[in-house]
Amino acid sequence: MNREQMVEELSKIVGKENILSSETDLLLYGYDASLFKGKPDCIAFPGSTQEVSEIVRFCHREKIPVIARGSGTNLSGGTIPTKGGIILHFSRMNKVLEIDIENQRAVVETGLFTLALKNQLARHGYVYQPDPASEKVSTFGGNFAENSGGPHCLKYGVTTNHILGAEVVLSDGEVIQVGGKVLDAPGYDLTGILVGSEGTLGIATHLTLRIMPKSEAVKTMLAIYNSLEDAGRTVSAIIADGIVPATLEILDKLTIKAVEESVHAGFPLDAEAVLLIELDGLKDGMERLAERIMEICRKNNAREVKSAKTEAERTQLWAGRKGAFGAISRLRPNYLVCDGTVPRTKLPEVLAQVMEVSKKYGLTIANVFHAGDGNLHPLILFDERDEEELRKVHLAGSEIMKLCADAGGTISGEHGIGTEKMKEMFFVFSLQDIAAMRKVKKAFDPEDIYNPGKILPEVQT
Amino acid sequence: MNRDELKVQFYDEVAKCNHCGFCLAHCPVYTVAGREWATPRGKNALVKAIIEGKIDWTPEIEETLFRCTGCRLCTQTCFPAVETNQGVLAGRECLVDRKQYPKVIDRVVEALESHYNILNEPNVNRTLWMDKLEGIPDHRFQKEKAKVIYFVGCVAAFYPMAHKIPQTFIQILNKADVDFTILGGEEWCCGFPLIQAGMKDKMQKLVEHNQEKVKDIGAETVVFACPSCFHTWKEKYQTDAELLHSTQFIERLIGEGKIAFQNGADRTVTYHDPCDLGRNSKVFDAPRNILKKIPGLNLIELEGNRQLSVCCGGGGDLEMIDPALSAAIAQRKIEEIQRTGTEEVVTSCQQCIRTISGYARKHKIKLKVKDITEVVLEAMG
């Protein structure tokens, strides 16, 4: 079907003003925060589940790919239109539909920004726990599709632990309800399958979320180390002691240097690593727990452990972590955030290997990551315009994923697979595993119109 | 400017954009438009695609590049601090050279070329705001020599809604015994609208004239109540005179004991940081210090304050080019003000006042919008 016809058909559903199809717009909806690019056929802005359903029904009839998009912040190419098709952009569907404090649930449209809900919940003393770095702009639809994480997911779990139900448009345009406000829905756990499916199985339009009361108290500490290995060992030791802090974040030497040059968080420049630890929960017993953690840090050769005594000191400690990305990204024009997970105990070993990769390719790699759940984020610095360097970046990224897989970990912690890591799926899954996943895809989307060219590598049979 | 020059000057800058999308949370244009063309990320992508020859100068690129308020909140909140607005302005220069720009700009250019003000009125009318004041001295504040020049700016001089700013500011200066003058019909537009229009080449004549006037008068200080004139002078003018915004000058006068507050003000207000004064010229404390000195006046900050202040919608010629978009941004600003629970917003910019109170008046929203000079004069008694 040619573009004019497509626009005409879609206009009947959402109105002409909610369709974009100029060359300029096709370029603007062909990228996300990854290194990949594509080109859609047009972009539609639905205003309701009904409109989404009608568009999908039309696409299903005409075999046109459909790619749902929120803020396009995803890092693995999840919203890249690899085979053309229609981008469904959810910026018009961004309302909080219900905040049910008594039952600790919220219902939202999927175009809503994560932080927008959090700001509303704060007025009730409540929180939605997952905190992806992009939360100020990441949409709930994107969180749902990528199963997003964040620093606080160590204690509270990732997005899938906080989505209890969804209204979903299937690939033939049918609308279904999965899960709901109750804790355990009978039948197959379709919500579980759909969260993290990167828009390849269904498109959510409404979500039912778990919300929780804000913690009574917070305690933030910073441990400083002369070796990255010791910082890594501390993380395992804290968890092994039966303590699950809200966050355990490590910054390495290169990151510390960059941070100090830009935000002056007060990290010592000669340190090899710092570990940022935050506890949250009830006031009672927190000091005792903090003492125990500091003791563990010292046992693992921390040369100094600081504890924030005021809110201002806490902000100061977090400033270094929050400013880390920015500080590093000023060193070179571009950065690739790798996302892999390893068992905590393997952190020191794998980090050393990552540094070997850095040397091998002559690429600068900085590390700032969610150490508590073994989620590494090596940041590879480069200039996208240098093709040779870009080629090395892709090779190094893939090699780091191999290291994670070989250490008994996996190739994603929170960014998904998208187009970026399809072939790396073989590092962690057998042909049979992938064939089983493909059966699920076929059951939901036999025509392969939902976000084609993602997650599952082609398998020769 | 052409594509090659654009590449030499801005390729490295736009290449720093990793399209992470974090700017979408802040850009006032995206917040109301909800389309990727509105985002700073999108603007960087288009400038880059132009440089790389991947796209031509389409009509949509013109629409996009001329819809940016120049507030620079994107740069403030961007990890690599990409100067998106610099690329946008350079893109506008390219479009102007291709004669591909909103035709409304021609009216301004014509006005500036024939009358040196944006309204195309005889330039002597720059002092009409004085007519309603009583007890004006014979020199009408236009002296041959003075220590201080008060540069009024086109908007405050010509738009009745903003007349209260020069009316109150000259009374403050007078009461504080400042040896000052205005330039009257010899004040020419500072050139800011031309920079925004992508025609900065045309501003040299204006700059030279104004610089010359400072020399003639022998002024040590030039004071501006308009943040955009102030910012333009600081960036583009060469003068030995000290350049101050009215809030900085008032703060100094308070410190010297020349301004004292007789009247208390038993009320709560919020303060809106104008983009060109706050983020772009880094003047955050002076207005707050002034408000804190007024007995009984209670200041509540907006959610977006200081470096994170959100544009009112009136920046970067947007009001002229797309009034509906500008108004939609003003609506968001008013909602943010209302969330503080106050019914009075103080700011230090005539354009912010026009945009915010213009919207409030049109939609019958109960909101007092005041320039800081008014608040100061009231408290002086």
The domain tally of chain A reads 4
Provide the residue-averaged pLDDT of chain B.
96
- What is the helical fraction of chain A, as a range of percent? 25-40%
Shape of chain A: globular
| Contiguous runs where pLDDT drops below 50 for at least 5 residues of chain A | none
Task: Walk me through what this model shows.
The complex is a heterodimer of chains A (461) and B (381). With 461 residues, chain A is an alpha+beta fold. Chain A folds into 4 domains: 3-89, 2-Layer Sandwich (Uridine Diphospho-n-acetylenolpyruvylglucosamine Reductase, domain 2); 96-213, Uridine Diphospho-n-acetylenolpyruvylglucosamine Reductase, domain 3 (2-Layer Sandwich), CATH 3.30.465.10; 217-257 and 275-314, Alpha-Beta Plaits (2-Layer Sandwich), CATH 3.30.70; 332-448, Alpha-Beta Plaits. Helices cover 36% and strands 21% of the residues of chain A. Chain A has 16 helices and 20 strands. Chain A has helices at residues 3-14, 23-28, 49-62, 114-122, 140-146, 153-156, 190-194, 228-240, 253-262, 286-299, 311-322, 324-329, 347-361, 387-406, 425-428, 431-444, and strands at 19-20, 42-44, 66-69, 86-89, 96-100, 105-109, 126-127, 163-169, 175-179, 203-210, 212-213, 217-225, 247-252, 273-281, 302-307, 334-337, 340-341, 364-370, 375-376, 378-382. In chain A, strands 15-12-14-13-18-20-16 form a 7-stranded antiparallel sheet, with helices on both faces. In chain A, strands 5-6-10-8-9 form a 5-stranded antiparallel sheet. Chain A has a 4-stranded mixed sheet with strand order 1-2-4-3, covered by helices on one side. The longest helix of chain A has 20 residues, at 387-406. The two termini of chain A are 32 Å apart. Chain B is of the alpha/beta class. Chain B has helices spanning 3-15, 28-33, 40-51, 59-65, 73-76, 84-97, 104-115, 154-158, 164-175, 192-196, 204-217, 227-236, 246-255, 285-293, 318-321, 323-339, 350-362, 372-380; strands spanning 148-151, 180-182, 221-224, 242-245, 267-271, 297-301, 344-347, 368-371. Chain B starts with a helix and ends with a helix. In chain B, helix 12 (227-236) links the parallel strand 3 (221-224) and strand 4. Chain B has 3 domains: 3-97, Alpha-helical ferredoxin (Fumarate Reductase Iron-sulfur Protein, Chain B, domain 2); 104-254, Rossmann fold (3-Layer(aba) Sandwich); 261-380, Rossmann fold (3-Layer(aba) Sandwich), CATH 3.40.50. In chain B, the strands form 2 sheets. A 4-stranded parallel sheet of chain B has the order 2-1-3-4, sandwiched between helices. A 4-stranded parallel sheet of chain B has the order 6-5-7-8, with helices on both faces. Chain B is globular and about 65 Å long. Chain B contains 18 helices and 8 strands. The chains are: A alpha+beta (461), B alpha/beta (381). At the A-B interface, helix 2 and helix 12 of A face helix 3 and helix 4 of B.
